[in-house]
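Lesson 9: reading folded outputs for more than one chain in a single document. The general rule is that every protein is listed as its sequence immediately followed by its structure tokens, and records are never interleaved. Here is the first one.
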Amino acid sequence: MKRLAAFAPVAVLVALGLLFTLFGLRNDPKFLPRAMVGKPVPEVVLPTLADGLPDTLSDPGGQPYLVNVFASWCAPCEIEAPVLVELKARGVRIVGVAYKDDPEKTRAFLGRTGDPYARVLVDREGRAGIELGVSGVPETYLVDGSGQILDKVTAPLTEADAVRLLARLQR
């Protein structure tokens, strides 16, 4: 009986290893959820970073824009910051969502990396992240003038991504 008890932890580890191996073989690790592509941008109301007044992800101007989900604690967000600043210089409107972040840290982040956003919404609890289907930060959504999500980039935005998104805007 003591011998059996000594092998129980090993048996549990082997069973867990098999379970994870079988799960990993059946699921594509490169699959990125795109459930919101083709759907309207969610009408989540969040406070703005500038004045704390409530605002939404939608852009009433009727022009295409990007929604960029970022955080001050996100190292890849710093990598994509120059691309976003360049997009702003090209006239692209970008709505920022500070995901699960402290507003003071967000301000410091934008002061350090540049502020490419037309406006920044503060999503301290992650509500907008849930509605958008965010799997991690940074994520960028291309939204057309009618409020439909056309595309999603789940990684730091690169120059190639920016070119591809801008091409989608011109179709």
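And here is the second record, again sequence then tokens.
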Amino acid sequence: MAQFRLQGSKVLAVDMTGDSVKAKNGSMVAYEGEMTFKKKSGGGEGLRGMVTRRLTGEQMEVMEVKGHGTCYFADRASEINLVSLHGETLHVEASNLLCTDAALRTGTSFTGLRGSSQGNGLFTTTVEGTGQAAILSDGTAVVLRVTPQLPLQVDPGAYIAHTGKLKQHFQSGVNFRTLIGESSGEAFQIRFEGEGLVYVQPSERNSIGGSL
């Protein structure tokens, strides 16, 4: 299995010995050794993935990198966070997924109105299995734990990803822009309940998630 390691906080080095990884198209910045690159379609594999992409408009340009040596990945100087999966599922915004072990399965999952609020459709990308994934954040990500006793409210524009047995609810409420007087109309939040981890970035993506 490929070995993921960070070079600083903004470059991902992946050591490969004949294995492969799936990475965001165009994110390779350098490599050592012998590598091959093959463009693949995102949003999931097979017929189901193709149908889902047609229905949701989920666009995720992916390349498969295979070879012997080390390949380096980065994306617009974004911070990179490593996530180790042990049979569980990572839910992540497509634009925040940088690289995964080839053995991990990717697909899409219905998220309800939360996805619609961001203009990204009603689905989010899923990564399942055992292996490592690298996700991107605008600034250093904060990993927040959710427990049955302590639910979590997140601004949709700051949400990156989550793992664990979590339920999401899209609800009206107050967000940061409302508090400082930079929002008009009704504000919205994502409420997470259950047991798991939520990844939040300190900079909100351009979206209409805060007010509709």
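What the second record shows: The two ends are 45 Å apart (CA to CA).
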